[in-house]
Specification:
Blueprint lengths: L1 H9 L5 H23 L22 E6 L2 E5 L8 E3 L8 E3 L27 E2 L5 E2 L4 E8 L7 E3 L3 E3 L11 E2 L4 E10 L8 E9 L7 E10 L6 E11 L4 E9 L6 E9 L1
Parallel strand pairs: 7-9
Antiparallel strand pairs: 1-2, 3-4, 5-6, 7-16, 8-15, 10-15, 11-14, 11-16, 12-13, 12-15
Helix pairs in contact: 1-2
Length: 266
């Protein structure tokens, strides 16, 4: 346009007709320049969206598929999909997170049930809870001779029971535990009106006198029954406490006796 203006300005010495010709030529030239700009091809490497497949749609992503080439990645309508480099030649592709090689670091326990009850002694259960492992140990034994009176027995093994009911015989618990599921068996069925009671007793630190725990069961005499159980009671004991079996006869009970209960780490 500067050149056109220069030509036009130099034409002041020209006649009126010449000036009109110059002006007309300048207008025509400007018109062709404008047409050329408007209809010029898109410069390389620019592209029209319509040149990329079927055009750009909502949710689509553009990426460089090669040098100076743009490709379109259609949106994935599935929920929780993420961009990965798993497409051809490591191009972007929609995928789910791979736990095999798509994550790193440690998953915070706060992401599992908000970390409720999570610590160094618990594990993640299949039902979505943090729990301490349960270690079940069976404590069991029996009298070495037939009993005809109340007695104290060591809970472990083939025990010589003592009819001195204040004896301190028993065994020391090596860890904090819960005791439960007591079962008792008599060799002979108590007579009608008689009863044979099994009770687990505890001595704090193995120095205090023994006291009954809630864990007990009674074989009620009817001439046929020989067993009893307590599967509902649970009682906590501490490491260093002592336990013993108190066998209490009322009426006529005779024969060997056997017992067993669980002692679980807590």
């Amino acid at each position: 346009m500067v050149k056109i203006f220069y030509i036009y300005s130099m034409s002041k010495s020209k006649t009126y007709v010449e000036k009109r010709i110059f002006l007309l030529l300048s207008i025509i030239l400007a018109f062709f320049i404008i047409i050329k700009v408007v209809y010029a091809e898109t410069p390389n490497p620019g592209h029209s969206f319509n040149q990329i497949g079927t055009g750009l749609l909502q949710g689509d992503l553009l990426f460089g598929s090669d040098t100076d080439k743009v490709a379109r990645l259609s949106k994935d309508t599935n929920s929780t999909r993420y961009l990965s480099n798993t497409g051809e030649n490591n191009n972007p592709a929609w995928a789910q997170v791979s736990l095999e090689d798509g994550v790193s670091g440690n998953l915070s326990t706060n992401n599992l049930n908000s970390g409720s009850n999570a610590d160094s002694s618990t594990f993640w259960r299949g039902d979505g809870k943090w729990e301490k492992p349960t270690y079940k140990t069976l404590v069991g034994g029996g009298s070495s001779t037939s009993l005809t009176a109340s007695a104290i027995c060591n809970p472990f093994g083939h025990s010589v029971c003592n009819t001195n009911l204040t004896t301190m015989i028993g065994f020391a618990v090596p860890y904090d535990a819960s005791i439960s599921n007591l079962y008792g068996v008599t060799q002979g069925a108590p007579a009608s009106g008689s009863s044979c009671k099994f009770t687990v007793r505890r001595s704090a630190s193995c120095t205090d006198s023994y006291q009954d725990t809630p864990l007990s069961c009674i074989v009620v005499g009817d001439g046929t029954k020989k067993t009893c159980s307590d599967t509902l009671s649970r009682y906590e004991v501490n490491a260093g406490d002592c336990l013993q079996i108190y066998y209490e006869e009322k009426g006529t009970c005779s024969g060997l006796i056997n017992w067993g209960f669980e002692i679980d780490l807590r």
